[in-house]
Design a protein that fits this description.
The complex is a heterodimer of chains A (about 325) and B (about 350). With about 325 residues, chain A is α/β, with parallel strands linked by helices. Helix content of chain A is about 35%, strand content about 20%. Chain B has one domain: Rossmann fold, CATH 3.40.50. Helix content of chain B is about 40%, strand content about 10%. Classes of the chains: A alpha/beta (about 325), B alpha/beta (about 350).
Chain lengths: ~325, ~350
């Protein structure tokens, strides 16, 4: 099949559609996934195709739904739970962290939990403090969970298909700001191997390490820097837990400079973990301190101006990159 | 709720005796768990004995091969009732490689896929929604299996139970919620934990068929469980309360200072094992020598299980990195290796 132009939302829908067509044990369960078609329209039309026993509209019982998926996965189904917002993770963390993630280990390898929890996070819709967070670090901190955050249309499809082949629980976090993004989907060719980062842009002067929507901010920043004669490498992590950081370290050992970029509140973030790893593994190769750029350490405010101002922009990332390379302070410093 | 259920099969003469044997085995097993702890051979002191709750055998006996279940802190008796090997159980409780979970789970996380045990759980109520998920599997596949959640009265106050009950009723799943009401959530007696003591009414309010059984009487528990399980297989999920008394403290270190010796003495008169024994004699289904033989056999079996667990080797240290993820995913890197790599590479190495 030739590559087609489509959206991030449609790529996820197609992945679900194809997985359900291939495997009768794949079920969808969640609030509004059936008749309504999903709060963000991702599961539109699936209940008409596969019926109410496979596309299950649930009551508003987030913890219960994830618990039901755990039991269904233990006994042979392949449930895909939709958690409408990652912010609702607070309601489901027992079932996710204590049940889904630990069953295989606690039970000596006997009982796996092959489920996918699809959810979406991030800013961009003035959805305020309880509907805009980036809580991936919570999932990173739990051994036994897999964590996937696609940034491109092609990855949205392929990483979800691959998540549905995993014998372990996968948390798949989409970005609400990317659903309408257009891109190329080639169902025959993934962007890269499952579990490993992808080099999205090559450059010799510094390395941006990022994932999800911040990939696009980093790529824009790299364009800006290129116009100033600075070549930035951009690495997209894609699969964050377990984390394969070999490509990151190889890049930073070449460039000697690293900036880790996340949309999440920066303290205790994925960026913090990456910065620590780079500091350990690349100490002798670093020309400059490893920088973290992330969301401000505040709840997400509703005002569009405040919301935008609280998370990294391409401009901020580019300025920090230029400063790190040239040691010339920007105007705001 | 008004669905008519099929008649209950008359008890065969051998069933009460085999249930007594199982109850005796559970009692003996739990006594050996106590010994394991006193000998310093248990993995920790998080050991919650089900002595006084042996009437669960009425439920496990009403289940059939292929049925699945989850348990709670106090689930040894349930697992034995579903056919567990006491030696492998005891080895798990001692944290040994020969245990059901290779020494990774212990008393609170014992499981066995082949016997349908989807896992003991140490989060109060944590395993309850899993049986609803299992029920979804059985409904979608049309297998006729039932899944049973066993839990204590403490979990009756957890929100997730009601999310699970609602979904089971909404989707008419083959699921049973079995509450072993032993009157105590740790040190808090049930009357200090609930505003209204009417668990069956709560379940009925969600659309479940509800029964309550006297925990002294394993046959009553069996009759109620049998009716509810038949209903569940036909799409009417049920709730069963077994009213019992927790004979000993919450866990091994608990001397129950929150209740009086008089209360405990009265509570222990509700002994389901002694009740079943007296009943077998009274009904002429077994005589004293036969019962004494059952008791001796159970004691000898559990002595062997205890000895096996104590003699079994500890797991190899390297096994700690296994089974975090399924085979095929690289095991987590031991930190010694990570530190060695950091300090042996680079210009300063």
């Amino acid at each position: 099949m030739t590559a087609v132009q489509t959206t991030y939302r449609e790529a996820i829908r197609l992945a679900l559609l194809d997985a359900m067509a291939e495997d009768g044990d794949v079920i969808l369960i969640g609030e509004e996934v059936g008749v309504y078609g999903g709060a963000y329209g991702v599961t539109k039309g699936l209940i008409e195709l596969y019926g109410a026993h496979r596309v299950i509209d649930s009551p508003i019982s987030e913890a219960g739904i994830v618990g039901v998926a755990v039991g269904a996965a233990m006994t042979g189904l392949r449930p895909v739970v939709e958690l409408m917002y990652v912010d609702f993770a607070g309601l489901v963390m027992d079932q996710l962290a204590n049940q889904a993630a630990k069953s295989r280990y606690m039970f000596g390898g006997q009982i796996g939990v092959p489920m996918v929890l699809r959810t979406q996070g991030g800013t961009g819709r003035s959805a305020a403090a309880q509907h805009s967070q980036s809580l991936e670090a919570w999932m990173l901190h739990v051994p036994g969970l897999r964590l996937v955050m696609p940034a491109t249309v092609n990855d949205a499809y392929h990483l979800l298909r691959e998540a549905l082949r995993q014998p372990d629980p996968v948390v798949f976090i989409e970005h609400k700001g990317l659903y309408t993004m257009k891109g190329v989907l080639d169902v025959t060719t993934p962007d890269g191997p499952w579990g490993a980062p992808v080099l999205r842009r090559a450059g010799a002067d510094l390395t941006f390490v990022t994932y999800s929507r911040m990939l696009h901010e980093c790529l824009a920043a790299a364009e800006t820097l290129a116009a100033q004669g600075i070549e930035a490498e951009v690495i997209d992590l894609r699969c964050l837990n377990p984390m394969d950081d070999a490509a990151v370290m190889a890049s930073v050992r070449q460039t000697g400079r690293a900036i880790v970029v996340t949309e999440a509140a920066v303290t205790g973030s994925v960026a913090s973990e990456l910065a620590a790893r780079i500091g350990e593994a690349c100490f002798d190769w670093l020309e400059e301190p490893v920088l973290r750029i992330g969301g401000e350490d505040i709840p997400i405010p509703v005002s569009p101006a405040l919301e935008r101002g609280s998370i990294p922009s391409a401009a901020l990332i580019a300025e920090a990159g230029r400063w790190l390379v040239s040691r010339k302070a920007p105007a705001w410093a | 709720m008004n669905q008519t259920l099929p008649d209950i099969a008359p008890l065969s003469n051998t069933a009460p005796q085999s249930r007594y044997r199982m109850m005796r085995r559970i009692r003996s097993f739990e006594e050996r768990v106590g010994e394991l702890f006193l000998k310093g051979e248990s993995a920790g002191s998080m050991l919650h004995l089900s002595i006084g709750e042996e009437a669960v055998v009425g439920v496990t006996d009403a289940m059939t091969e292929g049925d699945t279940f989850t348990t709670h802190h106090r689930g040894h008796g349930v697992f034995l009732g579903r056919g567990a090997d006491p030696a492998r159980m005891m080895a798990e409780i001692a944290g040994k490689e020969a245990g059901y979970c290779r020494g990774k789970g212990g008393s609170m996380h014992i499981a066995d896929r082949t016997l349908g045990h989807l896992g003991a759980n140490a989060i109060v109520g944590g395993g309850i929604p899993h049986v609803v998920g299992a029920g979804l599997t059985y409904r979608n596949r049309g297998t006729g299996q039932v899944s049973v959640a066993f839990y204590g009265d403490g979990a009756m106050q957890q929100g997730i139970l009601y999310e699970a009950m609602n979904m089971a009723a909404l989707w008419r799943l083959p699921v049973i919620f079995c509450c072993i009401n032993n009157q105590y959530g740790m040190g808090t007696r049930i009357d200090r934990a609930v505003g209204k003591l009417a668990f069956g009414e709560r379940a009925e309010a969600f659309g479940l068929a509800a029964r309550s059984a006297d925990g002294r009487d394993v046959e009553a528990a069996h009759e109620a469980a049998d009716e509810l399980i038949r209903g569940a297989r036909a799409g009417q999920p049920g709730f069963l309360e077994i009213v019992s008394y927790r004979f000993y403290g919450h866990a091994r270190m608990d001397k129950s200072p929150y209740r009086t010796p008089e209360e405990e003495e009265a509570g222990r008169l509700t002994d389901p094992v002694a009740t079943a024994r007296d009943r077998l004699t009274a009904m002429g289904l077994a005589d004293e020598p036969a019962l004494a033989a059952i008791d001796a056999e159970a004691a000898a079996e559990m002595d062997k299980a205890l000895a096996f667990a104590i003699a079994a080797p500890a797991p190899d240290l390297s096994s700690m990195f296994q089974d975090v993820y399924a085979p095929g995913t690289p095991a987590p890197r031991p930190q010694r290796d990570r530190i060695a790599a950091i300090l042996s590479e680079g210009a300063r190495a």
